[in-house]
Amino acid sequence: MSLLTDIKSLKQHEIALLVATFLATIAPGFIIIFLFAPNLLKDLDVLKLTILSFSITLPVNILNTLISFATETEKPIFLYPSFAQGAVVSAFVFYIPIAVTLFSPLSVGHFVVIAGGAEGLVVIAMIRDFLTKRKKT
Hints:
84% of the residues lie in helices and 0% in strands. By secondary structure, it is an all-alpha fold.
């Protein structure tokens, strides 16, 4: 019952952070593993799959969070707003190549190229947004 009580006591922003974390890190990693190495889903236990999912997606998420934090005009005290924006952007970076792969099977190399292109576009958009905000002030 303690776990249920803890879950009920979560605030809305904490729930949003948990959902964003799951959708930006764990879920795309599991889907990528399912698309390119489905035998790993049978061979590895849940903990190892979760760690592998994090290792696939977390570098992109950290990069987007750091760029978001660096391009904030008003620096937040915590990384929460930057992490939330980084998580949303990371989800965009991974789910577009996943959708393309679902409809048109790609090799891992093509998947990485599409994800890298999406990441490049996101970085350019975030920097452009920052420069536009800085010009206005």
